[in-house]
Automatic annotation (TrEMBL):
The lineage of its organism: Eukaryota, Fungi, Dikarya, Basidiomycota, Agaricomycotina. Transmembrane segments: none annotated. SMART domains: KOW (SM00739). This is KOW domain-containing protein. GO terms for cellular component: ribosome. PROSITE patterns: RIBOSOMAL_L24. SUPFAM superfamilies: Translation proteins SH3-like domain. Residues 59-86, 217-244 form the KOW domain. GO terms for biological process: translation. GO terms for molecular function: structural constituent of ribosome.
Length: 543
């Protein structure tokens, strides 16, 4: 008999059977007599048996008030806050934090001293409610008893659950259990006369977070920061979650999830635009963790867990740790880059610009315009197809000649047109804006499938990427009067997404943009159904 154990007549005990393991139970009972190495126990089956002391385990559970009889904590009183087999965690103050751990057989039942503040679990609306766990892998479908519930300070609530079959207790989120008979979630068990849940106010529950946890899709409403791609550095809110099919021949470590994110910016005339982003491109705003780590999906939402082989891109690297160092030292410059926005259309974006000394090298006769049709801030960084009249990059001497130029800002305020020709390594070569013309082959409103960018019309639309879905006639029914019906598209890498914005523009308001063959093929599939649907209607003739 261990020195810390102490049994008294009247103690409630369970009789553990060796064949069932340490936590197994044969039956429960009340001690009738105490001997040196054994106790006589009246069992729940109506029998009286003599049991070895090492097979007896007292039955105190979370919520019981006890006093320690033996050991270093003798005469200490406290509330049982947790239990794990033969070990009890005691709460001794109003913080409701376990401060000491003792053997269950070293305590006895006690009455709280009313002369000083005493922790209690009586305030819990679900106290002693029998529930079933639905969202914890190794305990799934296990039944337990709620012993305490409290707000977690982050817009949610936690419960302390005692599981008799395992003789242990642990904390859970309130969404991870349901009432054992009706399968109703806990938030539906306390309603007012109008059917509204009372627990939102009682526990100060964030309703958006509640919907995120209990809805069919995880992370809806979650606040995020974009850590890579064109929107790098922006914050936003997750509005939709979808899976995509992984190609096993390509990156098997991809996430397999695409998020619709509402960004905290204004783009043109759209406030808080929605864009499609790969799951790996975002991190939870406050923790900078991937979403499934910061906000684990519930069992109902497990379909949206990332690909099992998913490997998150590291947003920042920890420094090499010196010997005996146990705390990672964060590279703060790398962390700062995580929050640095690099999107060209963001209102606060500062384009680096071409240094003045580079502009001076172009010579005194070089014309760097601010009035050319391509010299618009919204077109910075976009490779646009043009014709060049004269000079070493002349395109008018051949039938199929074409060049792409990229509008680029200079430090002196001018806007330069930089040659963009990836297959020819020309370096930083600029062309006189007086030589740059609209390409001779104009976009075709009735058949066009190329990616285009808006260069004319309303200022708020300049710089938007568009694709044709149909056309109409403005005036008489002639080729010269054909106008585009366009949809605005956006990109994350090579993932193209159709937005809800549509434009009607003339061929002179758009220009071709460089795109890969793969992007063009993908867009043809993406817009096939929409184009077919719109194509059923004959082109309109408008005054």
């Amino acid at each position: 008999m261990p020195e810390l154990w102490h049994f008294d007549v009247g103690d409630s005990v369970s009789i553990a059977g060796e064949q069932l393991g340490l936590h197994g139970e044969i039956t429960r009972g009340i001690i009738r007599e105490v001997y040196l190495r054994t106790c006589e126990v009246d069992t729940a089956l109506g029998e009286t048996v003599v049991v070895q002391n090492d097979r007896l385990v007292k039955t105190f559970i979370p919520g019981d008030y006890v006093k320690v009889l033996k050991g270093p904590h003798a005469n200490t009183q406290g509330l049982v806050g947790e239990r794990d087999g033969r070990v009890l965690g005691l709460i001794r103050d109003l913080s409701h934090s376990v401060s000491i751990w003792v053997d269950v057989n070293s305590v006895t039942a006690a009455i709280a001293d009313s002369s000083f503040p005493t922790p209690t679990m009586n305030e819990s609306p679900w106290k002693d409610l029998k529930v079933r766990i639905v969202d914890l892998n190794f305990y799934a479908q296990t039944e337990g008893i709620v012993k305490r519930a409290w707000p977690d300070g982050h817009g949610s609530a936690r419960i302390l659950l005692y599981v008799p079959s395992n003789d242990c207790s642990f904390e859970l989120d309130y969404t991870q259990v349901v009432e054992h008979q009706t399968n109703r979630p806990l938030d539906q068990l306390a309603l007012d006369s109008e059917g509204r849940s009372l627990f939102f106010d009682h526990f100060k529950i964030n309703r958006s977070l509640h919907r995120m946890k209990t809805g069919p899709e995880p992370w809806i409403g979650a606040r995020i920061r974009v850590v890579q791609g064109n929107e790098h550095g922006l914050t936003g809110t997750v509005r939709d979650v979808n899976r995509y099919q992984l190609d096993p021949r390509k990156n098997i470590h991809a996430s397999g999830i695409v998020l619709t994110v509402e960004l905290d910016v204004a783009r043109g005339n759209i406030v808080s635009p929605q864009v499609k982003l790969d799951y790996d491109s975002v991190r939870e705003l406050h923790t900078t963790d991937v979403l499934h780590s910061a906000i684990p999906p519930s069992w109902r939402q497990s379909f949206f867990m990332p690909n099992p082989h998913y490997m998150p891109t590291k947003a920042f690297e920890a420094q090499t740790l010196p010997a005996r160092s146990y705390t990672p030292v964060i590279d703060r410059d790398s962390v700062a880059k995580l929050y640095e926005f690099v999107g060209v259309w963001h209102p606060g974006f500062e384009h680096g610009g071409i240094p003045s000394y580079e502009v001076e090298k172009l010579g005194p006769n070089f014309v760097a315009s601010t009035t050319h049709f391509l010299c618009n801030r919204n077109l910075f960084g976009i490779p646009i197809r043009v014709d060049i009249m004269g000079g070493p990059y002349d395109t008018l001497k051949t039938k199929a000649g074409e060049r792409y130029v990229v509008p680029t800002p200079a430090e002196n305020g001018a806007i330069l047109l930089q040659i963009d020709q990836p297959q020819i390594k020309v370096g930083n070569v600029f062309v006189d804006t007086t030589l740059v013309l609209r390409h001779r082959n104009r976009p075709k409103p009735s058949t066009e499938k190329h990616l285009m960018v808006v260069v004319g019309g309303l200022e708020e639309h300049i710089g938007k990427f568009v694709r044709r879905v149909h056309h109409f006639y403005k005036g008489s029914k002639t080729n010269a009067n054909k106008w585009f019906k366009l949809v605005v598209v956006e990109f994350t890498g090579e993932v193209e997404v159709v937005t809800g914005l549509e434009l009607e523009l003339s061929p002179d308001d758009v220009e071709y943009v460089r795109e890969s063959e793969q992007v063009r093929r993908n867009s043809t599939q993406l817009l096939a159904e929409l184009r077919q649907f719109r194509g059923h209607a004959a082109p309109e003739i408008r005054p």
